[in-house]
Design a protein that fits this description.
Layout: E1 5-9, E2 30-31, E3 34-35, H1 36-45, E4 51-56, H2 61-67, H3 71-80, H4 83-94, E5 97-102, H5 109-115, H6 117-120, E6 125-128, E7 132-135, H7 140-151, E8 154-160, E9 170-178, E10 181-189, E11 200-208, H8 211-217, H9 229-236, E12 242-246, E13 250-253, H10 257-270, H11 275-285
Parallel strand pairs: 1-4, 1-6, 4-5, 8-12
Antiparallel strand pairs: 2-3, 6-11, 7-13, 8-11, 9-10, 9-11, 10-12
The structure holds uridine 5'-triphosphate.
The site of uridine 5'-triphosphate (UTP) has 20 residues, from helix 5.
Amino acid sequence: MKVRKAVITVAGWGTRFLPITKAQPKEMLPLVDKPLIQYAVEEAVNSGIEQIILVTAMGKQAIEDYFDRSFELEYVLEQKGDVRRLQEIRELSDLVNVCYIRQKEQLGLGHAILTAKDIVGREPFAVFLPDDIVDSKVPVLKQMVEVYEQHKTNVVAVDRVSIQDTTKYGIIEPKKISSHIYQVLSLAEKPEPAQAPSNLGVVGRYILMPQIFDVLEATPPGKNQEIQLTDALQLLLRQQAILAYEFEGVRYDTGTPLGWLEATIAFALKHPDIGHKLREYLRQLL
Ligand code: UTP
């Protein structure tokens, strides 16, 4: 069955961006000229996703407003004759069919995904953690959908991380199948470098079979008393294969101020309107 739906989890507290996230979702921070969340939504649309399920929480209304229509704003732009901006904001609300569900208690990523169970139904689906933004020719999820179509099983995106960073990721024990594809033999949650089975870290894109919901329901709270997706994937391995796909592209973790700045500079340098001037400015600064 085709991957038609994507769950994007945005219910976390975003503590690494406090105090900003006290009053505004980190997903609405700009990355050059668009909010971070738009990159995930556009990647999903460009990968063939037909419905997006955003798992939100208290304080995230700005995201709903962003993808909704704003007749008042359209009227103002129309009166001003600003056709370009009018078209831009209309396109935004027509981008894709988005529905929202609230995670009432922030009990972890696994729990956030479980919140979307009834809307997803019994079909394979994608999961996006929108902090991970990948600059690539072919959208990462589209690359993963191809792997899914060939193998019809769970696919997680992996990236090579530096060995001292294994403590920040779920790390896979891989068995190589082909140049970019590995079979996951086991998963270790944030291991110390000496214990890490590889340096392939799971990052924020997944294609999951619906059985993950049954497994998540049976997964006990793990680290920080949260229902951890990594724990559920480890349990899922008992009944289904999980493939790891080393995608083509450069990943930025925009969930930290430094990662966000790196992504901002990298994307801005490539931007046709401002890239050239920014390069000059950075040269002067250095
Ligand atoms: P993170 O671990 O990055 O947490 O969540 P966070 O809240 O976004 O940021 P920090 O660590 O406090 O700075 C990984 C993903 O899981 C979602 C987050 O929104 C993010 O997409 N998440 C996490 C939920 O949706 N619900 C939760 O209860 C926890």
